[in-house]
Design goal:
alpha+beta, 14 strands, 26% strand
Length: 345
């Protein structure tokens, strides 16, 4: 799957990032999202595959969607028999977030990117549009920290695994009212907190790389993005756990249904009989082969944002594979018309 789709999925996120970056700083988050969706869909529909969206655009902001269940790829066309050999057909599940951090793009802030994860059919957890309690940590702490432990306990374990004092650790937490007590506990334990307004996929993945100065992600964020993060962390060998949050009182928003009971009923209808189950990265991204790809829209910890020049653009992407056990950073120059010059740096 990697050899067939590897380059093409990079182009999918690159095209989404370029489209969205044209709206950077214009204060129109839904437009930045919509153009990313359209660019991502258009490029995926040129790939020789039968793809199914299992995690698409969230419904919270009435944003345009690559909707759950949508089929993409040349082999989903009515005339697919003319293009696709059934014996060589690649069927994959796809989780997408064409513009992760729409507010970041709209207001010209760092950390937005176009992301997707793919696996063979059935290889990605079809998370509902709920929230998820998350814990991400470096490979050295895999299986040692635990989402059921307190932040204080996990920081102590993390410090031991990384041979650092707790005071040297940096934990990323989304700046939300629901995290007030968590932030206080992390600070009381001696660690430092980096608050982010949006975009926790980047924060989770950053835990998998040394040198980012991000040692953990803690707190509650969107569940679909949790699956995408888990796919990347599984490929990197990092630690990721997620637990669905179905009680509106916990997240302190009105975005996941009116009642706890209604949400529990919805989960049961989806076949989730244990709503309190803690999922590991290998359960959220369980496929034999998992690929993750991201392209920076605005500058971030891992990647540069899209940089435009007369006649084109330059992007930086990241593709991570469980198959080849590689993490590739890809620097691409996109020549869209006759340029006056092409900068090397």
């Amino acid at each position: 799957m990697e050899s067939t789709l590897g380059l093409e999925i990079i182009e999918v996120v690159e095209q989404a990032a370029i489209a969205s970056a044209k709206w950077m700083g214009k204060g129109e988050k839904n437009t930045a999202d919509q153009v990313a969706v359209e660019a991502m869909r258009e490029r995926m529909n040129k790939i020789h595959m039968r793809g199914r969206i299992v995690i698409g655009e969230g419904e919270r902001d009435d944003a345009p969607m690559l909707y759950i269940g949508e089929e993409v790829g040349i082999c989903t066309r009515e005339d697919a028999k003319a293009y696709c050999n059934p014996e060589e057909l690649i069927e994959i599940d796809i989780a997408v977030d064409p513009c992760e951090g729409t507010n970041l793009v709209a207001y010209g802030q760092n950390g937005s990117m176009a992301v997707l994860a793919i696996s063979e059919k059935g290889g990605l957890f079809a998370a509902p549009d709920f929230y998820m309690k998350k814990l991400a940590a470096p490979p050295a702490a895999k299986g040692k920290v635990d989402i059921n432990k307190s932040a204080t306990e996990n920081l102590k374990i993390l410090g031991e695994c990384l041979e650092r004092n707790v005071e040297e650790l940096v934990v990323v937490v989304m700046d939300r009212p629901r995290h007030k007590e968590l932030i206080q506990e992390i600070r009381s334990a001696g660690a430092r907190v980096r608050l982010i307004s949006d975009g926790d996929v980047s924060a989770a993945i950053s835990c998998g790389f040394a040198g980012t100065n991000i040692h953990a992600l803690m707190g509650i964020g969107a569940a679909p993005e949790g699956v995408i993060s888990a796919a990347a962390m599984r490929c990197l060998g990092g630690h990721f756990q997620g637990q669905l949050i179905y009680d509106p009182e916990v997240v302190k928003t009105g975005l996941i249904g009116e009642s706890r009971e209604g949400n529990l009923a919805r989960l049961k209808e989806m076949g989730i009989d244990d709503p309190d189950r803690v999922y590991t990265d290998s359960e959220l991204a369980s496929g034999e082969t998992v690929l993750f790809a991201a392209c920076g829209i605005t500058p971030g910890t891992l990647m540069e944002g899209v940089r435009f020049f007369y006649g084109g653009a330059r992007t930086q992407s990241l593709v991570i594979s469980s198959q080849s056990q590689t993490a590739r950073f890809v620097d691409t120059i996109h020549i869209q018309e006759q340029p006056k010059y092409i900068e090397l740096k």
